[in-house]
Amino acid sequence: MQFYLPIAEVSVNIFLLFGLGGLVGVLSGIFGVGGGFLITPLLFFVGIPPAVAVATSANQIVASSVSGLFAHLKRKTVDLKMGSYLLAGGLVGSGFGILLFNYLKSLGQVDLLVQLCYVVFLGIIGGLMFIESLRAIRRARKAGGARRKRSQHNWVHGLPFKIRFRASGLYISVIPVLLVGAAVGVLSAVMGVGGGFIMVPAMIYILGMPTKVVVGTSLFQIIFVAGFNTLLHAITNKTVDLPLALFLLIGGVIGAQFGSSIGVKLKAETLRILLAILVLSVCGKIALDLLLEPRELYSISRVAAGGQ
């Protein structure tokens, strides 16, 4: 059954949209990710314009992150003070990201920018995850293998303007915290992602936060940054397609229930390597679409009324 999406200006099968939302929901339940870096490229593949896909996918990110945050708040695994500073940086970064997005959109280059960002970041993240997953599998197979200690201090601890974050047990400079938040804000605005796949490693390896509070704190920041980006896209670009967001959200909620039950049955090492393969597959598909000659070399765009 075809449904016309008013903002995307395309007709798409409703069951296909439910299926995409459900697929990302299953993957989110299995791997514990928000799914923004998956749903946006999948929307590209079914013909949704990248500008609309970026702006609309943030709605699903907000909904899935809210439910996850409540669970972490109950377990007291959220550093609200750290999250507030990350959020401050994220809102500033989002503002710059929207300005960049709008400027490139006016030049007609925003679609290319979004796709190139996905190729670069998914390629890097997927490659690093795949290598680390292979190492983890090898370590798991070695009986009695010595565990490598992670350094407790790095260059971050030598920077000025230090603040104590009691929930994380840290006394570090606020500068890298704001920079990490700002970087994720820019990527969220341009790529339509929550930024968790970059935020979580940065919080662990750059800021040195304990793993138990990383996910909940990341979700706290993601909710407000993704919501802010959705609002800015809706006001400045008018590219948020509410029917599309609703179909994806319903499918995602249903799919997440199945995914969570599947995820508990798989080993952590297996989950990581499967997620890495999935990320690299999406990266490869986008890169292939950029390299191959399109079926239609020319397209006709509408000119605003009143032009000569």
TrEMBL record:
One GO cellular component, as annotated: plasma membrane
Location within or outside the cell: Cell membrane; Membrane
What keywords tag this UniProt record? Cell membrane, Membrane, Transmembrane, Transmembrane helix
Record bears the keyword Transmembrane helix = yes
Keyword Membrane in annotation = yes
What membrane topology does the annotation report for this chain? Multi-pass membrane protein
Q: What is its main location?
A: membrane
Pfam families per UniProt = TauE (PF01925)
Give me the segments passing through the membrane. Answer: 12-39, 51-73, 85-104, 110-131, 174-207, 213-232, 244-264, 270-292
* Family matches, as PANTHER family: MEMBRANE TRANSPORTER PROTEIN MJ0441-RELATED, MEMBRANE TRANSPORTER PROTEIN YTNM-RELATED
Q: Which family does it belong to?
A: Belongs to the 4-toluene sulfonate uptake permease (TSUP) (TC 2.A.102) family.
Protein name according to UniProt: Probable membrane transporter protein
What lineage is this protein's organism placed in?
Bacteria, Pseudomonadati, Pseudomonadota, Alphaproteobacteria, Rhodobacterales
